[in-house]
Amino acid sequence: MKNPKYHIYLTPDERRTVINSLIDLRNDLISRGKYTDLVDELLIKLTKAKVKQIKIKEV
Question: What residue spans define the domains of the chain?
Answer without folding.
Answer: 12-48
